[in-house]
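thought: fold this chain, then report.
action: predict
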Amino acid sequence: MRLNAREIAFMSVMVALLIGGQALFAAVPGVEVVTVLLLCFSRAFGPGRGALTATAYSLLRCFFFGFDVKTVVLYLLYFNFFACLFGFSGLFAERREGQKAAGGEIKAAERKRKFPWNAAAADLLFLLLCALAIVVLLDVPKVSVLLRAGLKTMAWVLLSVAVAGGVAFNVLSALGKKYPVCSKAAEAAFCAAAAAMCTVLFTLLDDLLYPLFYGVSGEAAVAYFYASFTAMLPQTVCAVVSVCVLFFPLMKFFSLAASRCRRQIER
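observation:
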């Protein structure tokens, strides 16, 4: 992977934005902008540059938020996976967009098959989110009465977001065959679903690493798992909302910056 000075400078500014965004909302539980910023950056610049940015962010944030081995390992594993996931999805979308007919227009057949993989993946993600919310609503396993009330409230919110997002995505995908604007909106909905699922994965990975690094007992690990829901569910909703609102302007900005960096490499 070859980097030029403009890309290195842009990646450095991106790391600063990620750290600044985390610091800005650190006092507000469940609210963050790191997800949408890194998502759009990785889709525009690709998995390699996204992973480098994620690694630098995971390490440099320690100077501002303190050094903790478990947190460093968590961030390195999760955000590198996150950057590669959306980086490769961006390459896939770009390759499909590049399939042109001789006259410069996308073929009708290609337009109809534009979102088959995205549709199946997004529906699976929405179903997994619904399944997670239903498991919590069914009290499997049982938890304390005080914690159960809070978990059920947040589970209903997560279930509502997942159902609404799934319906909106499938409607937009169907309309996208005729209206290109709806096709773009479906792409944003897919990214929002993937971001929500990744947010859940982040919490589950944290729950896995916590007992391994601190050697806590089984009961303490279970208590930590359920306590993490109070942060996970608001973060999931925030990820969906922030991606839906900021996806188009951020992608336009990052795509323009990435294209200029590629032109500089080709010279």
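thought: worth noting. Residues 5-266 form one domain.
final: tokens above.
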